[in-house]
Amino acid sequence: MLSQAVVKRLKEIVGERNVVTDKVGLLTYGYDGTLLSGEALGVVSPQTTEQVVEIVKLMNEHDIKLVPRGAGTNESGGTIPSEKSVVISFTKMTKIHEIDTENFVAVVEPGVINFDLQVELAKKNFYFPPDPSSFKASTIGGNLGECSGGPKCFKYGVTRDYMLGLEVVLPNGKVIQTGGRNFQSEPGYDLTRIIVGSEGILGLVTKVFVRILPIPRAKKTMLALYDKVEDASQTVADIVAAGIIPTTLELMDNLLINTTEDFTHAGLPRDAGAVLIIEVDGYPEDMDGQVKTIGEIASKIAKEFKVAQTAVEVDQIWTSRRSAFGSVARVRPSYGVNDITVPRSNFPKAIEGVLKVAKDFGVTIGVVAHAGDGNLHPLILFDQRNKEETETVHAAEQALCMMALDLDGTISGEHGIGLVKKKYLDKEFTPAAMEAFRKIKRSFDPSNRFNPGKIIDL
Amino acid sequence: MGVLADVYEMLNTCNKCGGCHTACKTYKLTGSEEMSTRGRIQLIKAVADGKLEPNQEYEDAIMSCLLCGECAVTCPNGVHGNELVMAARRDLKLRKGIKPFVKSFALNTLASPKRLGMGFRLFGGMGKSVLNKIDGLDYFRGIDIRNFPTAKKPFLEQVPQKITVQHPKHKVGFYVGCFLNHSLDQTAHSVVKVLTKNDCEVIIPKDQVCCGLPQYCYGDFETAKRNARKTIDTFLDKYSDAEVVLSACGSCVAMLRHDYLKLFADEPSYLPKVKSFCEKVVEFSEYMAKIGVDQSKLHNSTPLTVTYHDPCHMVRGLKVTTQPRQLLQMVPRVEYKEMFEANRCCGAAGLIQAFYHEVSTDITDQKTQNIKDTNADLVATSCPACMLRLQGGINKAGQKQKVMHVADVMANAYED
C-alpha cells in the first residue's frame, strides 16, 4: 500500500483523476497479453515530461519502483507489476507534436497509438513502417520498449530502425535527449539504439522522433496455398535465395487459417495446409515483373497461387493475418506465444523443428510466422486451468527455444524478454555477455527502480 | 455466481490480446484500462472467480459501458463484451437492485405509460419555464435540456387507431416507442406520412407500452418481461391483422426482434409466440426499401447535402446500413456525404449520457466534429435518442446542421 502522503503528492503532480489506488483500477493494470498477472501499489498517468520527472523524484525519495506501461498488449510480461511497484501508464500522453514531411520525421508522445499515427500520416501520404499485429491498440512507446516488428520488417526493418531520437527521463530524474532530427549521425554512444528494446529498464521515454516514409505508389498482394506447412517454408527459402525482397512474407498454417477464417470470412481455403501472404511495393511499373518472378518460384511447389484483385480482398487478408493471435481462443482458451527467430536459410528446418516439438510433447501448435525474417510465432494452445497440461506447455516452450538456438537463432525476434523469456536468456548469451547486460543496467539504474526483474536479474 | 456462471466460458475465452481497445470509445477517450472492454471483462471474471467483491468502482466500470457492441465485432475470438457486461448488470441487479435511486426511478417511469406521459408534460410545461429562468443552465451534463423537445400531447392521443388509404397494399402495425410518442411526435407523423404515401394502411394501437429495453439494459428483466409480454400480446392478439410491426427506432426494433427471444428463453411455453412476433418486426428504412418507394412522388427543389449517422442498434444490432442511405439518395437534389466513423456511437447510449456525462460528452464532441468535416446541411439517422443527442451536441458546438430522422427527410419531399 502506498502511504497517504505519497498518494496525495502523486495527485498533486498529475491530478486527482490520474492516480489509481482502488482495487478495481489496480486489477486492470495487473495483466498484459500474457497469462501472467500482478498487482501494483498504484497507477499514475502523467501527461507531460515534467510530471514524469516529478514522479520519478518522488518515487526515489520513497524508494518505490516504477513499471512503465503503454497499452499492455505485449507478449513478454514486460508490463506486469511483479515486484512492489507503481505502474506509470503513458496512455494519456497522446500528442502528435509534429509531422515534418520535408525531413521525414514525426515527433510524438509515447502514448500515441501506432494506428492513430498511421491515420494522421496517411493524410499527408506518409506512413510509419513498423506495424506489429497489435498496431491498432499498441502505443509507440510500447513498440519501442519491445522493439516491435511486424509484417513489413522483411523489407523495412524493425522499430529500432525508425527511431531517430528520444527524450528520456533517467532513473535519477534527469532528462536527456538522444539523437534527434538528423539521420545517421549520433556522435558518441548510440544511446537511442540501447534504449529502444530495453523494455523500460533503463529510462522512461517521454518524446520520440520517428522516421517516416512516403507511402509506396503501388503494391501487390499475393497468396500462395500449400498442402503442407513444410512446402510453404521451401518457397520462403527459394524466394530469399533468388535475391527478392518482398515487403512481407507471412506464413499461417491450417489451424490459424481456420481460426482467423471463423472471424473474418476472408475466403482462405480451410483445407489448405498453409498459406503464404506475399506483398511487394514500389513503383507501378515494377509490380508486374516482381509478381511474375514470385509466381514462378511459388508455383513450383504451391498448389495454388493468386494475386488479390481488390482493395477489399487485400484488407480481408490482412485482417486475417493480424487477428491470428487473438483468434486462437476459439480452439483453446489459453496460448503460449513463442517468438523464436532463425537465419532465413534455416527457416525450413525451424518449421520441421516446431512440428517435431508438437509431436514429441503431444501439444497443439498453430504456426504463424514472419517467414521472410525467419521469425516464427508457434502458438501452443491449452487450458491454463489444467495444471498438468500447463507444465507440458512450458516444457515444449523450452524445447522450442533450444531448437532455435541450435539453428543459430534467437529466443526472441520482436516480443522482448520481459518475464516470460528471462529464464532462457543465459542459454543464448555467455556469462560474460550477461554480465555486460547487468553492468549497463546498473550504470543507468543503480538502485534497480525501473521495471525491476525484467530481462535480467541483478 | 449464477448469471456469471452461464457466461464463464466466454469470460475465459478473452485472452487479453487488447484488440478491443480500438473498438471501445470509453477507453479511447479516457486512456483508462478499467474503461476498456478487456478491463471490464477481466473485472467481471474476477467477480465470477470470487476474487473481487462488487463495489462502487466495479459498478462504474460496468455501468459506463455504452453497449455499442463494436467490441463484439472486433474481437477475433468472438467474445461479445457487450453481452458480458449485460450479464454483469443482471448479476448486480440480483445482488443489490438498481442503484442509485434516480436510475431506478427513471427506469420505472419509462416502463409505465402514465408516469412517463406525466413526466414529459411536467417537464415540457413547468419544467422548461423554470429552466429558462436559470442562467447558465443550458446544458445539464452535456444534454441540451432547454431545447429538448416535448410533444404538447402524446402522439398516440393525436391520431386515430387506424389510418386508412385509398388502395391499401399493406397493413402496417406501428410501434411508436416512447421518444416518438412524447418527444419527437413530428417524426412519428412523418413515418405515418411516408407509409400512407406508399399505400400502407397504418394501425396504431393506443395501448402500447415501452419495449422494455432500458430496463433490460440495467438487468431488470422482470419489468422488461412485463412490458415485452404486453407488447407481444397487444400486437399479436388484439391487432393481428397487421402484417408487420414497424418501428422507426433502431433500438426498439433490436429489442423487439432479437432481445425478446433472449428474454423469454426460459419460458418454453411462451417462446413460440415470441418467435412469431419477432418475425413480424421491421425497421422503417428496411421495410420501405423492401416494399419499394415510388421515387416519382418525391419532390425537392433545394439542394441539400446530407450525411447519415448509423445508430448502434441499427448497424450492429440489425445490420441495416444500406437502406437508409438508399432512401436518402432517392430524394431529388440530395447530395450524400459519408462521415468518418459514421457507424460509431454518438454518446447517447441510453442513460449513460446522464450518469457518465464526461466521457459521453467527449464522444459526442468527436461525432459533431466528424459531422462538421462533411460540410453537410443535414444529418439523418434512424433513432430518436441519437437525434436528440446529436442535435444537442451540434448546438453546443455552435454548428448549424439540422438533425432529422430518415422518415422526416422523406416526408418533407412529399407534396401534401
From TrEMBL, chain A:
Domain spans labelled FAD-binding PCMH-type: 36-215
Record's keyword terms, sorted: FAD, Flavoprotein, Oxidoreductase
Protein name, per record: FAD-binding protein
Record lineage: Bacteria, Bacillati, Bacillota, Clostridia, Eubacteriales
Pfam families per record: FAD-oxidase_C (PF02913), FAD_binding_4 (PF01565)
Cofactor: FAD
Transferase found in the keyword field: no
Superkingdom of the organism of origin: Bacteria
Automatic annotation (TrEMBL), chain B:
Catalytic reactions on record: (R)-lactate + A = pyruvate + AH2; glycolate + A = glyoxylate + AH2
Keywords assigned by UniProt, alphabetized: 4Fe-4S, Electron transport, Iron, Iron-sulfur, Metal-binding, Repeat, Transport
Limits of the Cysteine-rich domain: 172-257, 306-390
Record note on cofactor: Binds 2 [4Fe-4S] clusters.
Necessary cofactors: [4Fe-4S] cluster
InterPro entries on file: 4Fe4S_Fe-S-bd, 4Fe4S_Fe_S_CS, Cys_rich_dom, Glc_ox_4Fe-4S, Helical_ferredxn
EC number assigned by the record: 1.1.99.14
Domain 4Fe-4S ferredoxin-type: 11-79
Record's function text: Component of a complex that catalyzes the oxidation of glycolate to glyoxylate.
Protein's name according to its UniProt entry: Glycolate oxidase iron-sulfur subunit
The species this protein was found in: Desulfosporosinus nitroreducens
Upper lineage: Bacteria, Bacillati, Bacillota, Clostridia, Eubacteriales
